[in-house]
Amino acid sequence: EHHHLHLSSCHECLQLENSTIESVRFASAENIPELSDDCNSKLEEKNDGSLAREMKRVNLAGKPPNVLIYLGSETAKVEFEQIKSILQECIDAESYTIYQLHEEQVLKAPWIDNSLLLIIATEEPISEENHKQFMKFLSKGGKILGFSSSFTFDGIQIKRKNKLKKTVHELVVSKMDSTEIKLNLLVSGCIFEEVMKEGTGKVKTLSRLNNADKDTVIVHLTYGDSGGEAILSQAHLELDINSMDIQTEEDFNLLKISNTKRYEVLKEILISLGLSCELSEIPTLTPIYLLSSDE
After folding, report:
1. pLDDT average, residue stretch 2-25
2. pTM for the full predicted model
3. What is the annotated signal peptide range for this record (predicted)?
C-alpha cells in the first residue's frame, strides 16, 4: 500500500529521462525552424489575411486579448464608455477585454505585449515619447485604429480644412470585397495627404468624401515585418447620433439613415484588423451549489 519513491538509479526512470531529453533536443534542432518557415510561407500564400486573423494575441494572464482605448491626457470617462459601448455592439464581447489606456500608463504599463488593438481617439497632439511607444506596438504586430486623432506615421500627414469641421458629408468607402458603400458621417475637419518618402510602408485609401476635392478621410497603413497595421479615420465612426452636436434636422436625418451602414463599415474595419465580430450567444444560466461546513 505504501508506494516507494523511485531513485535516480532506477533503470526505468533513467531511460524515460534520456528519451525525454533527446525528444526536446530533436524538436529544438529540427522541427522549430521548419515550423517557422512553414508558417511564413502559409502567410504569404493567404493574401486575404485569414490565417493572420486566426493568430490572436493572448495576454500575459492567459485571459482574452486586450482592446485598449487611448483618449489622451483627459480622464474622458464619458467618451470611454461611449466608444466601449459601440465596440461591444460590434465585436464578440466574450473574446476581448476592453480597457482605457491612461496617459500615465503609456510609458509604464506592460500593455504592448498583451494587447491586440489600440484605439486612439483624441485630437490633442501626441507626445514624441508616446508616439514611439505606439510605433513599438505596431512593430511587434499590434493593430491601431484612429478615430479623428492626430496620430499619423510614415507616408501620411494631416491637413486641416476648417470648412469641413463638424459637418456631415457623404463618404464613399471601399469594402474588402472591392465593392463600395456610401454613407453620411460627421467629419472632423481634417483630411489625409500622402507624403512621398523612401522606405515607407504601403498606404491604401479606404474612403474619400463625395465632394469636388475627393478628400481622403480613411486610410490603411502597414508597418514593420510582424504584421503591424493601422486604420486611421477622420470621420466619426465611433460616435452615436445622440452623443453628437448636430446643427440641423436635415443632418440628423442623414446620420440616422446611415446608422446601419456606419455599423457595417465599423465591423468591416475591425474584422480587417483581426478581430472577431461574430456575436456569441449568452450562455444559459446553470444552478450554483453552495457547500459549507457550517449549518
Report:
1. 62
2. 0.73
3. none
